[in-house]
Amino acid sequence: MNKLFILILTVLSFAALASDKVKIDGNMILNGELNPAYDGQLTILAGEIIEIKDGPQNKKMYKINLHREGIKDIWIVPIANIEGGLPLNGHFLFKGYVSVANSLDPSKNLSKLINSSTILLAYQVNTHK
């Protein structure tokens, strides 16, 4: 029983440490958007989907409102297509990497399409209440 308790504490400790590495810090946001200097940085964003667009290579893109003062709406592109897509006005938790938008698009038009220099490249999407 003691071994199980120690194992649970160890797992919880690692989870707490991992979660500290994915929070938005004050420098990750620049002028209300994800900071391009954080390209490749892992983060988690929670928000409400307020717009859906078709992006390059037939990828769905989701604009989310984080409901945080001073932060603009942020565009998300899931790495894998989500069967059926995500619903407008749905609340989700996105885990992914800050990415410079034009580095993801060979035509270099993505930043114009989303009116932002950065995007979150999401590898995991969870419902969020």
Provide the fold topology.
Layout (H helix, E strand, L loop, with lengths): L1 H19 L8 E2 L2 E2 L7 E13 L5 E6 L8 E5 L12 E10 L9 H5 L3 E10 L2
Overview of this structure, please?
- By secondary structure, the chain is an alpha+beta fold.
- It has a single domain (24-127), classed as Nucleic acid-binding proteins (OB fold (Dihydrolipoamide Acetyltransferase, E2P), Beta Barrel).
- It is built from two helices and seven strands.
- It has helices spanning 2-20, 110-114; strands at 29-30, 33-34, 42-54, 60-65, 74-78, 91-100, 118-127.
- The strands form two sheets. Strands 3-4-5-7-6 form a five-stranded mixed β-barrel.
- The longest helix is centred in the first third of the chain and has 19 residues, at 2-20.
- The model is unreliable at 1-23 (pLDDT under 50).
